Amino acid sequence: MTRQLFIGDKEYFRGIGRIPYEGQESDNPMAFKCYEAKRMVGHKTMEQHLRFAVCYWHTFCGGGADPFGVDTQVFPWDAPADPVDAARARMDAAFEFFTKLGVPYYCFHDRDMAPEGNTVAESEALLSTMVELARERQEATGMKLLWGTANLFGHPRYMNGAATNPDFAVVTHAAAQVKAALDATVALGGENYVFWGGREGYSSLLNTETQRELDHLARFLETARDYARGIGFTGTFLVEPKPMEPSKHQYDFDAQTVIGFLRHYGLAGDFKVNVEANHATLAGHSFSHELQMCTDAGLLGSIDANRGDPQNGWDTDQFPSDLYDAVHAMLVVLADGGLTQGGLNFDAKVRRESVDLEDIFIAHIGGMDTFARALQVATRLLEGSAMPVHKAGRYRSFDSGDGAAFERGELDLLALRNLAVAGGEPNHTSGKQEWYENLVNQYL
């Protein structure tokens, strides 16, 4: 489908056309150096491998504010005084940006797309109006929705949580909001739906019944799943881990915590994990570690592609530019068979000091080039280097004989003890970590 460069009567990103691919030798900041959507890497195109998405919130709703200062970025789509008119302008700007950047997907919170009304019914009506406009924009541009979600953390009513709130009245409002967001996601053909529990946690155990709150969270997710399946949603539900901030301790601390929660409550059949790189940093893990835990469990759903700053103790949501980190991530993803229904969503924001509209393009171009290059490097490492053979070789003692019998559950503890006696002290076998690290650098 041929995409229009902008929708409506106004062009917001004047002077910027469709972002071209110009290759490694180009010094044009408004061109891709690595990402070619239709370039084949293995049996898929780059677009099919990476499934890039732009987030609605940071990109079009965030103005650079931080805990110590107000917005620094002035967006022309925020000019209308009426909130609904501003929402329409923001949507026009968003679809113009998606089209010019050339991504296949976008993601949104309900409150990104439509303002909140004074009542539940008014909020639902406002969102429904904007969803209809978004559907028209999708049809005109060929854009698709990777996932939708509800903002259950911004409003003051959620100060003590949403699904885990000790006040049942708040839980009902959260349910109403999720219902509307699910309706919107289905109407727009969303392929996934995300739950991020920004305030699903606690600040003090002195006033918190954690077991009851966890039970409530699971029950809430069950009701959302059942409703969504009932209206025809066939996609994947995603839970996004984060250890803290805004809550002191959040129940979805990291990937393994979420995996354990989903399995404990019998939700793993419908729910998977949406891994965010910056949240991995806050949990004290690497991005690739969180991805590996999910692929080991068969529960990797989608990825929020950004990075954190190890010198800062909060969620900086920077655009991904660390090629080494991205290569490690893509090694895990490709070894798992690649992204299927998920994608790489840029849950990232330009820096507070980056106040030109073109900076939004430059940031996304850099992130897309980073993962395009990482895709190429990781593919070469997995398909053309000795790494997979060496890695498998570390475990060859389990491939036959007593090691294989142990994996099959055929040896009890006494039998293992007797094998230790008969075999004597094992030889020291090098892990060759430096060799692996040098190999990655060589392919970079």
TrEMBL record:
The keyword Cytoplasm applies. One of its GO terms (molecular function) is xylose isomerase activity. Transmembrane segments: none annotated. Its EC number is 5.3.1.5. Mg(2+) 1 binds at residues 240, 276, 304, 347. Its cofactor is Mg(2+). The active site is at 109, 112. InterPro entries: Xyl_isomerase-like_sf, Xylose_isom_bac, Xylose_isomerase. Binds 2 magnesium ions per subunit. It catalyses: alpha-D-xylose = alpha-D-xylulofuranose. Mg(2+) 2 binds at residues 276, 279, 315, 317. SUPFAM superfamilies: Xylose isomerase-like. Keywords: Carbohydrate metabolism, Cytoplasm, Isomerase, Magnesium, Metal-binding, Xylose metabolism. PROSITE patterns: XYLOSE_ISOMERASE. It is found in: Cytoplasm. Gene3D superfamilies: Divalent-metal-dependent TIM barrel enzymes (3.20.20.150). It comes from the Bacteria. Belongs to the xylose isomerase family. Homotetramer. This is Xylose isomerase.
